[in-house]
Specification:
303 residues; Alpha-Beta Plaits; Yope Regulator, Chain: A; 2 domains; 16 strands; globular
């Protein structure tokens, strides 16, 4: 075999290798979502379960609760997640809004075919008061993104900006001890230790499976507040029979329950979302949160 044939054979081998195929598939997948990114004017990220997700933190807001300045990653993170199913797509999300933004955003979304599935608080007593609008729409993905962009333009949600360089600043509490008490590994994002705990069962809506990345996983966030303490916020995703056992577990450990409500309308099984708050020793709070997780049908941590 001459050298030219050898080079072609080597190239074919490289292109057919598992790593090359994975890279090619990733590039093709990202390319499919380019029109959606263009329509929304932001960059998204591919998530497990075929979900393409956009994060839109409300960095413009200065919100405090119980003397704690709330970081966007603790409780001020707007997001939208798209999933393609056959010839149409579904978008779900949660928009963090000031009180005066709620009505114009709702009207704009309704006019463009994106519905509201929940409008409510996630916190109690924060200043200024913040509302959360859960949304759902079906149709052509780029059209949905354009409709969402029109609504976001009526808010002061910051536009796309270059990703800030990662900073390895100490959290101010023992991350390893918190993760041990939780029984799950977390990730640090913008100075916030975040945990995502999926449900063990499948959650469906309109015949489509709703993956954890579309808002069906329990989310728990720790924001350092100094001296080994942390403010915690997030939401438990619960079956009806789990609601009161989780309330008791949280309250028995000094964690406040701020709200219980739906985020979706036609989900099967129907799930309830419980928002919570506390500011105390981080490991102590992690122990209480684990007690509440034990009262749910959550996926076990991978070992």
């Amino acid at each position: 075999m001459n050298s030219s044939c050898l080079r072609r054979a080597a190239l074919m081998f490289l292109l057919s290798s598992p790593l090359a195929l994975i890279a090619q598939q990733a590039a093709e997948t990202d390319g499919e979502w380019k029109p959606v990114e263009s329509a929304l004017g932001r960059s998204g990220q591919m998530q497990p379960g075929g979900v393409f997700k956009f994060s839109m933190p409300r960095k413009d807001l200065t919100v405090t609760k119980d003397g704690v300045k709330i970081a966007p990653g603790l409780a001020l993170g707007s997001w939208a997640a798209f999933k393609q199913e056959g010839s149409h797509a579904m978008v779900m999300g949660d928009l963090v809004l000031t009180e005066d933004e709620v009505e114009p955003v709702m009207m704009s979304l309704q006019q463009h075919g994106i519905e509201q599935t929940g409008i409510h608080n996630h916190l109690i007593g924060e200043q200024p008061h913040v509302m959360y609008m859960h949304i759902e729409g079906q149709g052509e993905a780029a059209t949905l993104a354009k409709s969402l962009a029109a609504a976001l333009a009526l808010t002061k949600t910051p536009g796309a900006s270059p990703a800030a360089p990662a900073q390895a600043a100490p959290l101010g509490f023992d991350q390893a001890a918190v993760e041990k008490a939780m029984g799950y590994s977390g990730k640090v994002n913008g100075g916030i230790l975040q945990f995502t705990v999926p449900r063990a069962e499948k959650i469906m809506e309109h015949g489509m499976e709703i993956p954890p990345a579309m808002g069906t996983a329990t989310g728990i966030n720790f924001q350092p507040t100094g001296g080994g303490k942390a403010a915690i916020s997030g939401d438990f995703v619960l079956l009806a029979a789990e609601v009161n056992p989780v309330i008791r577990a949280l309250r028995n450990h000094g964690i406040e329950v701020e709200a219980v409500h739906n985020h979706m309308l036609g989900d099967e099984p129907h799930m309830y979302f419980m928002h919570f708050w506390a500011n105390d020793d981080a490991v102590k709070l992690a122990t209480g949160l684990r007690s509440a997780l034990d009262a749910t049908n959550s996926q076990k941590a991978k070992t």
